[in-house]
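Service request form, structural biology core

Requester: graduate student, group of Dr. S.
Request type: structure prediction, single chain
Budget code: on file
Notes: please return the result as structure tokens.

Sequence provided:
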Amino acid sequence: MEIILKQDVQRLGSKDDIVNVKDGYGRNYLIPQGFASEASVSAKKVLAENIRQRAHKEAKLKDAALVLAGKLTELKVSIGAKTSTTGKIFGSVNNIQLAEAISAQGFEIDRKQITIPKDGVKEVGSYTAKIKLHREVIVDFNFEVVSE
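Core staff response, request fulfilled:
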């Protein structure tokens, strides 16, 4: 039996794959659970059209992310923090503060897209964070932490 997967199924395939399974497995488990649908000729045509449209939308999103990535690499952001006399920050700089500083410059970046270095930002200086704008577009973003 040939079926179209509606979501990822472990050891079988990922979403929108057309796979062959035994009749009982398809009719008694995959289709009733909503994991798959039968792969008729019309269903295959609909799937092909959906994949084509999704690829077109994905290309537009990727192009927009590349344009934004170019703008973000030129952006200079400095974050002020209270520090001791030795330059250590009271607390640390996190992705929320970085997202607010970027949005103050006019770019809307969600804090969940920003990854700060693993060792953290606990001293005054220049650092690099990664911003994931798209599945395939990840930007290295330089920022500076200064003493207030």
